[in-house]
């Protein structure tokens, strides 16, 4: 049987140790490289989040697209103005420089939300009678053919095409709860009145 000398035995042990070390390093180094790669990829994530943050900012910008409204009547500067989404009649009035001394703000719902393309009309103070009482606004326009939906009673409203007793009561209830109509199209906000009904009566109604 072949027998190694003590020196040869040491060499064999040394070579075995080096071989074992090589095997360990062979499998250990790729794991370290993979860990380093994952860590490097993770460090790049904020750039992705930053991009998404920019997208969110664009969404907010879209939500603040201005409303375009026409302010007319007894205001300092009548005209067309851009307002932010969610603005109300009071904001449109302030944009137009405020109301004149002749304006009757009691007949305007200043808290009403605005919609794009809306006309905001600020009416004049009603004249007072000889007894000092404010005169009741006329129910019929100067042409004598249009019903003022802001002042018409139950019977007058029922005389309009497609407006029966139920819808007439709804109109009266709406203006009592929300204030006077600013334009004839506002009647669409009354429950039970749609585009078809408005189309049939819009030439016969007014808000002034």
Structural write-up:
The protein is mainly α. The chain folds into three domains: 1-40; 64-129, Ubiquitin-like (UB roll); 136-208, DNA polymerase, domain 1 (Orthogonal Bundle), CATH 1.10.150. It contains six helices and five strands; from the N terminus they run H-H-E-E-H-E-E-H-H-H-E. It has helices at 6-43, 45-63, 89-95, 154-158, 165-178, 195-201; strands at 67-73, 79-83, 119-122, 147-148, 205-206. It has a three-stranded mixed sheet, covered by helices on one side. Strands 4-5 form a two-stranded parallel sheet. Strand 1 and strand 2 form a beta hairpin. The model is unreliable at 46-56, 58-62 and 136-144 (pLDDT under 50).
Helical residues, percent: 40-55%
Mean pLDDT: 76
Q: How many domain regions?
A: 3
Kindly name the structural category. mainly alpha
By DSSP, the count of extended strands is 5
Largest sheet: 3 strands, mixed
CATH-level-4 superfamily name of the largest domain: Photosystem II 12 kDa extrinsic protein
- Rg is 40 Å
Which CATH architecture of the largest domain? Orthogonal Bundle
Number of helices: 6
**In one word, what is the shape?**
rod-shaped
CATH topology of the largest domain: DNA polymerase, domain 1
Instruction: Kindly report the spatial arrangement of strands forming the biggest sheet.
Output: 2-1-3
Name of the top-level CATH class of the largest domain? Mainly Alpha
State the low-pLDDT regions, or none.
46-56, 58-62, 136-144
List the helices and strands in order. Answer: HHEEHEEHHHE
Q: Strand percentage, roughly?
A: 5-15%
